[in-house]
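Cross-check.
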Amino acid sequence: MRFRNAFVALCLVAISAFAARDARAYRPDITVGPAISTLGLGGDVGLRFNDFFGVRVVGNAWMADFDASYGDLDYNIDFTLASVGPMVDVYPFGSIFRITGGFRYNMNGVGLTGTPNTNVSIGGNVYTPAQVGTLDGDIDFNRIAPYVGLGLEFTLLNGMMALGTEAGVLFQGEPSVSLKSSTGLIPQADLNAEAKQIEDDLSILAYYPVVTFYMTLRF
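Predicted model, tokenized:
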């Protein structure tokens, strides 16, 4: 009986000490900083609760315009990266290594515009430039995209600043492609077949690789 009472008392003391330590450590700090990644330029703002746990809202964006060929057509490509969403950071060892998970509202997409100068094959059939006119298309992905990543974070200035890198995957789903001809002379079945071929060729983008370099200030 005495041993049991002593054991219970010891456990209560240990729990009280742990709770007191956590109470002292529970000072959520605001974190903010810029980042550059394969999702574009951006940054994040969040709360770092302790050495093991933090939450953030991240966002990135980038736009580019260039020409590229696909099949028989030369396209003008309007390329857009844009996403924002909440993330949870877990530092399992209370050190530089972290595991990140969350999701983003995903606005990544591509606009296509092609005006052929020679006969082209669309959906397995050949059409003249007059029949095609201008071919317009859109490539879209799932709006809600889960994300997981692993990172390393190195603190400076007594923890007030951190530099880090992270590698992860944005699960944005397979691309959805739509095509239309300005003349209306191309059968929709051929346009759909051409769109399906583009979807198959770009299916790897369902798992979009994300590499991030960031700086964080902690207040």
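The chain has one domain: 27-218. The chain has a mean pLDDT of 89. Passed to J.P. for a second look.
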